[in-house]
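Example record used in the benchmark description.
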Amino acid sequence: MVIHAINSRNQIPGRIVEIVLGPVVSEVDVETESGIVTSIVTTRSIKSLNLQVGSEVLAVFKATEVMLAKI
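Model output (structure tokens):
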């Protein structure tokens, strides 16, 4: 699955391996070929999209939301 309207370099397919539900926002861990990607998603969106462990998803990145730290 690829969304063609979005640059394909900004998409990584994966499968949800863990969801930590919170009252407003939740943490979603997605297993990809490159490793685990963690996303913070509103709990309302998780419910409306019916996301659950095992769901296949695309992790889509926006450059303005990527942070780097020198190690």
